[in-house]
């Protein structure tokens, strides 16, 4: 089961709750409702009673059909097979239930009695497919929450099957009025979740192309996806081949059965739409089908109402699932498909200024390849100009299928793949471009991009070699734009490899040439390299920041969005902002600029990483974890960085360890590798940290040896990492002398002296030198350079030393300061401070459960959704209420809890959850 963790957690909480709980699970066919329910049932305690009923399409003619099916096969009460009342059915009640001679009230009472007896102990009752349920079964469903006992009632249904005449329609309304109801709406899997499912099945991460193709084909419907995977066979599943594989016959037949009762006009429209693509303009569809406008509107309205097609945009239509489109198109003759493509192409060309992607697609279908290549060239350039990198790549590659030697298309594909953060594809396209380029200027352009891709893909030595090639070719270039670009690339390469004086010198040379040739874009890009190099020099930080801010402003004014985004990113990443407000403002600007440029690694990965870091600086651990999770959901390319390491996973594992979520930390850690499959120093440190937090001394000792070996192989650790490792090692009982060699392997810079003070204080305390440790702890505790959580640990260390030295009053002040800093934190640091409260005479933190708070049941449900990160609009859709009502709930929750933000609600829930 993929992508349903939050929903499963909510059902598990409901099943463990008091009294009667109701959950309604909605979603289209195949989206995973039954799978979610089964996962819930599989994880229930052994003593939980389970009653499951399944409605069928013909159930409306069989009163109480769901209950009768559920009890079918159970032993009657008092039999030798099952004498226990909790597992038996009263024969008299069962007879009344099936006897139409009794009134509906008597039969309903008998049905409720059966459920009461069968679920006397803690129970879960499931009514599947309520949209097909008979009126009597829906009435029973509504009656069950009134029964005594502790049970969770779960109903599943398909919203698109619920009409005004369905018994379930009135049931949904009445339930909402009478009881607190938890609504779970299952959406289709996103691209990230599709990738996770493919990885779980195939045993390896899918390429972006395979994931995107299979996601598009199935629309993210888990059932369709699983059927395609099943068709791929059991052994050696080839996801790339599966993208082109025909539909399994059973799936194709199931999809085509939706068209069994359409009339000829509807069939004509459906077949034309199936050939024309997943987004068909109304005018093109009208031209191809030759239907009058009004008649086509009528046909489309009926097809949309029946769920066969959807309105994908203004005056655009398509199939609900791409597989349905494939199933219809596969029935047509090849000549029919070519004719439809040709009619569509002529209509688009006659209209003028048509979408190049549509023109290219229909030109290929019609066999008019000159039109295809022209559309691919113009479309790739147009999409790159507006930041639509994925669309540009798709179009360029479509053209390259027919013209593989076209350098314009190859260059467009290379740049688009790089912007989309598809580094493997970018590497392949750019290498081919560099190989085929004959003119020095073309080869220089290819080498420039290849060097950048090599750096971002962790190919450090290749990046350096490519820089040398660019240096060799610069003298062959005339004093023009390409020469200036090449010089700027050299400056960038030196900046990235920390050759800062060389970077500044080459940036200045580039700026001078750009000014001479009036190339403002090149000048701005070179100024980014110069400003970034200055920012990395301790005595020139302010001049670097000033320069980059000016570059960002000028680049935004000139529409040089990529340059602006890089300038802002480097400010944020190299030097901490003066305030969180300033940092967040820069971060939002960076994201907007990167999105306009179509540069995904900054628009997604760097943005959410920045959000997480700022949340940590604000002392909000939950918000930091939420930001990283959201980034991971948005883009799987977020996983890798220029160091070839899954930095997202490293970051998230570290935060999971902070929060004390050891199982999660272990599960993420298992997926982490470094360059060439070897663990990075960060991963080695996390393995040691996890072993320490689990209390496994032997594993910790072995992991520490591996870390020391990694330092000898890879390089020095940094101050923050050493602080975490020393804290973990001491918590696991390792002696200080075993950990002290860590301090000898760090290159302590002037900027890291606060970390040095903290680390040596930790070790001095472990060695019994409280007075020496106190000096270091208090220095670290007073440092604004360290985050709130780290300063809290320094305060806690100072308090322990002061207690040992007999200064309890001063220790109390440190404990109070630490507790305040950790108000929105969690995990081992909070436990460390709580352990000190009693020693200094401070009360233990209040243990308040959610049910003891002033929130109503509905408000508690809304609060849980807020903690999941839902907006007001998403709350409204999930709970079937208006956005205004959702906003009122949020306002009431904030007011009652005395909080000011949604992230504080999430932190409050985490702190006050029972157990």
Q: Kindly provide the radius of gyration, computed on alpha-carbon positions and rounded to a whole number of angstroms.
A: 32 Å
Counting DSSP E segments of at least 2 residues, the number of strands comes to: 8
CATH topology of the domain at 5-185: Rossmann fold
Model regions low in confidence, pLDDT < 50 over at least 5 residues: 77-86, 637-644, 847-853
| CATH class membership of the domain at 5-185 | Alpha Beta
CATH level-4 homologous superfamily of the domain at 5-185 = P-loop containing nucleotide triphosphate hydrolases
Shape descriptor: flat
In which range does the helix fraction lie? Answer: 55-70%
GO molecular function, one term: DNA binding
GO biological process, one term: regulation of DNA-templated transcription
Domain HTH luxR-type: 848-913
GO cellular component, one term: cytoplasm
Describe the structure.
It contains 48 helices and eight strands. The two termini are 27 Å apart. Among the domains are: 5-185, Rossmann fold, CATH 3.40.50; 599-661, no CATH class; 748-845, Serine Threonine Protein Phosphatase 5, Tetratricopeptide repeat; 850-912, Orthogonal Bundle (Arc Repressor Mutant, subunit A), CATH 1.10.10.10. The chain has a five-stranded parallel beta sheet. It is mainly alpha-helical and 915 residues long. The longest helix has 18 residues, at 334-351. Residues 848-913 form the HTH luxR-type domain.
């Amino acid at each position: 089961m993929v992508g349903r963790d939050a929903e499963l957690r909510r059902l598990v909480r409901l099943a463990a709750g008091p009294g009667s709980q109701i959950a309604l699970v909605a979603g289209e066919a195949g989206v995973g409702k039954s799978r979610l329910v089964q996962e819930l049932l599989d994880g229930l305690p052994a003593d939980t009673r389970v009653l499951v009923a399944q409605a069928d399409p013909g159930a409306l003619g069989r009163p109480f059909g769901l209950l009768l099916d559920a009890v079918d096969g159970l032993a009657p009460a008092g039999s030798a097979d099952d004498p226990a009342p909790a597992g038996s059915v009263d024969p008299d009640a069962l007879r009344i239930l099936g006897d139409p001679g009794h009134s509906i009230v008597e039969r309903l009472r008998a049905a409720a009695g059966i459920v009461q007896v069968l679920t006397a102990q803690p129970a879960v009752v499931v009514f599947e497919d309520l949209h097909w349920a008979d009126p009597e079964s829906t009435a029973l469903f509504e009656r069950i929450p009134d029964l005594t006992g502790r049970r969770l009632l779960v109903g599943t249904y398909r919203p698109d099957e619920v009409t005004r005449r369905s018994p379930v329609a009135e049931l949904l309304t009445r339930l909402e009025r009478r009881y607190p109801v938890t609504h779970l709406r299952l959406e289709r899997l996103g691209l990230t979740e599709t990738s996770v499912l493919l990885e779980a099945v195939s045993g390896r991460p899918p390429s972006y192309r395979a994931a995107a193709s299979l996601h598009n084909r199935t629309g993210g419907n888990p059932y369709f996806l699983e059927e395609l995977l099943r068709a791929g066979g059991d052994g050696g599943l080839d996801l790339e081949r599966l993208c082109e594989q025909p539909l399994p016959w059973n799936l194709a037949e199931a999809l085509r059965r939706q068209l069994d009762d359409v009339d000829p006009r509807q069939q004509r429209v459906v077949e034309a739409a199936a050939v024309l693509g997943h987004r068909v303009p109304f005018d093109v569809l009208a031209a191809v089908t030759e239907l009058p406008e009004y008649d086509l509107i009528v046909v489309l309205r009926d097809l949309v109402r029946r769920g066969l097609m959807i309105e994908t945009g203004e005056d655009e239509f398509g199939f609900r699932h791409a597989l349905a489109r494939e199933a219809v198109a596969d029935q047509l003759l090849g000549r029919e498909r070519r004719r439809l493509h040709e009619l569509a192409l002529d209509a688009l060309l006659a209209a003028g200024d048509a979408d190049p992607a549509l023109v290219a697609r229909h030109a290929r279908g019609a066999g008019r390849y000159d039109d295809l290549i022209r559309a691919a060239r113009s479309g790739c350039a147009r999409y790159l100009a507006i930041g639509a990198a994925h669309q540009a790549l798709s179009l360029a590659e479509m053209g390259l299928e027919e013209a593989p030697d076209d350098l314009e298309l190859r260059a467009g594909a290379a740049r688009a793949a790089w912007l989309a953060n598809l580094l493997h594809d970018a590497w392949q396209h750019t290498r081919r471009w560099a190989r085929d380029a004959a003119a020095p200027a073309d080869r220089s352009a290819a080498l420039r991009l290849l060097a950048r891709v090599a750096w971002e893909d962790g190919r450090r030595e290749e990046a350096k070699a490519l820089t040398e090639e660019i240096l060799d070719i610069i003298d062959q270039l005339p004093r023009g734009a390409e020469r200036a670009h090449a010089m700027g690339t050299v400056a960038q390469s030196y900046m990235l490899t920390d050759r800062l004086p060389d970077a500044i010198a080459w940036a200045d040379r580039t700026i001078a040439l750009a000014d001479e040739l009036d190339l403002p874009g090149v000048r701005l890009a070179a100024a980014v390299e110069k400003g970034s190099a200055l920012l990395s020099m301790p005595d020139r930080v302010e001049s670097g920041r000033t320069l980059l801010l000016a570059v960002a402003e000028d680049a935004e004014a000139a529409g040089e969005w990529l340059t602006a985004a890089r300038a802002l990113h480097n400010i944020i990443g190299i030097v901490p902002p003066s305030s969180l407000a300033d940092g967040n403002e820069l971060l939002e600007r960076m994201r907007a600029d990167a999105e306009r440029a179509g540069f995904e690694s900054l628009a997604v990965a760097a943005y959410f990483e920045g959000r997480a870091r700022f949340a940590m600086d604000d002392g909000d651990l939950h918000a930091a974890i939420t930001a990283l999770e959201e980034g991971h959901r948005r883009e799987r390319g977020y996983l890798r960085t220029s160091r070839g390491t899954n930095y997202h996973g490293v970051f998230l594992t570290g935060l999971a360890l902070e929060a004390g979520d050891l199982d999660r930390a272990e599960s993420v850690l298992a997926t982490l590798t470094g360059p060439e499959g070897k663990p990075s120093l960060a991963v080695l440190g996390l393995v040691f940290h996890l072993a320490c937090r689990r209390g496994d001394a032997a594993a910790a000792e072995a992991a520490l040896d591996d870390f020391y070996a990694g330092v000898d192989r890879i390089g020095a650790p940094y101050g923050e990492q050493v602080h975490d490792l020393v804290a973990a090692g001491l918590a696991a009982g390792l002696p200080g002398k075993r950990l002290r060699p860590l301090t000898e392997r760090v290159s302590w810079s002037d900027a890291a002296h606060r970390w040095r003070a903290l680390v040596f204080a930790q070790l001095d305390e472990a060695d019994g030198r409280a007075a020496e440790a106190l000096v270091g702890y208090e220095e670290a505790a007073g440092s604004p350079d360290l985050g709130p959580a780290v300063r809290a640990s320094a305060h806690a260390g100072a308090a322990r030393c002061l207690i040992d030295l007999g200064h309890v009053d001063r220790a109390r002040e440190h404990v109070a300061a630490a507790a305040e800093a950790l108000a929105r934190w969690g995990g081992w640091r909070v436990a460390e401070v709580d352990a000190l409260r009693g020693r200094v005479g401070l009360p233990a933190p209040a243990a308040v459960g959610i049910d003891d708070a002033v929130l109503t049941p509905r408000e508690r449900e809304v609060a849980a959704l807020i903690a999941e990160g839902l907006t007001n609009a998403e709350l409204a859709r999930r709970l079937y209420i208006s956005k205004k009502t959702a906003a009122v709930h949020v306002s009431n929750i904030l007011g009652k809890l005395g909080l000011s933000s949604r992230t504080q609600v999430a932190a409050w829930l985490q702190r006050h959850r029972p157990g």
